[in-house]
Amino acid sequence: MKSFFGLPIFKDIRFWIILFFLIRMIGIMNPPLEVAHNWRQTTGTMVTRNFYEESANIFYPRVDFAGDKTGITGMEFPLLNYIDYWVSELFGYQHWYGRLINLIVSSLGIWFFFRILKRYFSRETAFNASIILLASIWFAYSRKIMPDTFATSLLLIGFFYACKYFEDEGKKWIYLTLYALFTLFGILAKLPVGFLLILYVFFFFDKRIQVNLKIVFFIVSGIILAPVAWWYFSWVPYLVEKYQFWHFFMGKPIGTGARELIENWHDGLKHFYDAALKFIGFGAFLIGIFFAFRKGNKLLLRILVLCFAAFAVIALKAGFTFTHHSYYIIPFVPVMALTAGYGISQFSKKWIQILFLTAIVLEGTLNQLHDFRIKEHELAFVKLEGELDHFSKRTDLIAVNTGDNPTAIYFAHRKGWVASNDELLDPTFRESIRQKGCKYIVVLKRYLGGDLYLELPTVVNNENWVIYKL
C-alpha cells in the first residue's frame, strides 16, 4: 500500500487494532446491562462468580436461576469464564474482567486474521478486510462477556499456525502444538465456530504438501475434536440429566430448523445485510463477490462456497434461534469481511478505497455506540444487591419477574427463580416456590420486568422495584 492518509503509520494494521482497542476501553467497567444480550453476559458472569465463591471445578459450571437446585448444568465449555475466574483469584472478583479478556483476545484475533490473509491475498486486501472486521458486529461483541468473538479469534490463531505447519520451514511440532491448543479451546468455547474447519480441505488437496504432514495433522485434529465431542454430546447431557436443570441450547432437527428459517427468512437475512457489516459493508461484500467472479479468483470463490455451505448447517440446526439472535452470525463475519476487503481493493484509485473504508467504519461504529452507554433506569440494577442485604441473607432464595432473563438474579447476588408476571400472579405457582424455599419476590417496574400488585407483605417499594415477602 503506497500511502494512507499521508502517514506511514496509517498503513500499519497494528495502529488500527490498538486504536479500536482503546476506543472499546471506554466504559469497559460498565455493568453488563446493555440492551443487546445482557442476559447472556450475566449468565456468564454468574458462572464466573460461582467458580470464585463456591466451587472452582471447571467441569461443573453453575448458574443462579435454577430455583432450589444446585444450578449445575450443561453449557458451553466455560473457558472465558474460567480465565475470568483466574484473574479474580489474583485481584478479587469484578464482572468487567470478562470484558477485558474478550477484548484482548479478540484484538489478537484481528492481528492473526490480517496475517493469514496476507499469506494468500494481497496486503491491501488483508488490510481492508481487517479494518472492515474491526468495524463489524465484532466492534461491540468483542467487549461483551460472551464467547463468540473470543472463540472465533482462538480458531483464527489456530489456523495461522496450521498454515505455518504446512508451508513454513522451522519447528513444525511447535506450529502443530499451537494449532491444536488454540483450535481445541476455540471450538470448546463455542461449538459453532468449528464450521471454519472446512477450510482445511485446501491443505488436504494441495499436492505440494507432503503426505506425512497431512496424516499427522489430521490425526492430531481427530484427537483434539474428541474432547469437544465428549463435552457437548456426553458431558453436557449428563449434567442436565443428573442436576435436572436444562439451560444450554443444543440445536434441533435440521428439518425443523429449515422450516423455521423459511418462516423467519427476513430476520435471518437481516443478520447478513445489517448486523454483520451494516449496509455499506454488505454492499462491499457484494462487490467482492462480483469481482471474484469477474476476475476468476478461484480461491476466494471456493472459500465462500465452502464456508457458506458449512455455516448453513449451523443455521439449519439453530432454526428460529439463528434468526432471533444476531450473535450467531459472528463466526461467518470474517469470511464476509475478507470478501468485502477484496472487493474494495479492486478499485485502482486509492481515494475510492479510503472513501469506502471510512463509510464502513463510520456506519459500523456509530450504529453500535448505544452498546457503550447504560441508561439511568438500567443502572439501578447495581443497587439491588445492597437493597436486599438490608433485610435478607445471601442464602435466601428469591423470584424475579423477568421472564427467562436472569440479569436481575445476577445483580441481586442470590439464587432463585425467573418468572413471568402471569406466573407470579398465580397463587399455585407462588405456593410451590414458597415450599421450595423462596422468601422474597422482586417485581421490577422499569426494566426487564413490569409492575404488578401482589397481595403480600411489602418490604420495599420504590420507583425501580417492589420487593414482597413470600
Give a written overview of the molecule.
The chain is mainly α. The chain has 22 helices and 5 strands. The protein has helices spanning 13-24, 38-53, 79-91, 97-120, 123-135, 138-141, 148-167, 172-189, 201-204, 211-243, 254-263, 265-276, 278-294, 298-318, 320-324, 333-345, 350-366, 376-379, 384-389, 407-412, 421-425, 427-435, and strands at residues 397-400, 415-418, 438-444, 458-461, 465-469. The model has no long low-confidence stretch (mean pLDDT 94).
Query: Taking all residues together, what is the mean pLDDT?
Result: 94
Sheet with the most strands: spatial strand order: 2-1-3-5-4
H/E element order: HHHHHHHHHHHHHHHHHHHEHEHHEEE
Measure the end-to-end span: 68 Å
Helical stretch tally: 22
Estimate the global geometry from the Cα principal axes.
Answer: globular
Beta strands, count: 5
Strand content: 5-15%
Low-confidence region ranges: none
Whole-angstrom Rg? 24 Å
Helix content: 55-70%
Which structural class should the secondary elements be placed in? mainly alpha
Major beta sheet summary: 5 strands, mixed
Could you say how many structural domains there are in total? 2
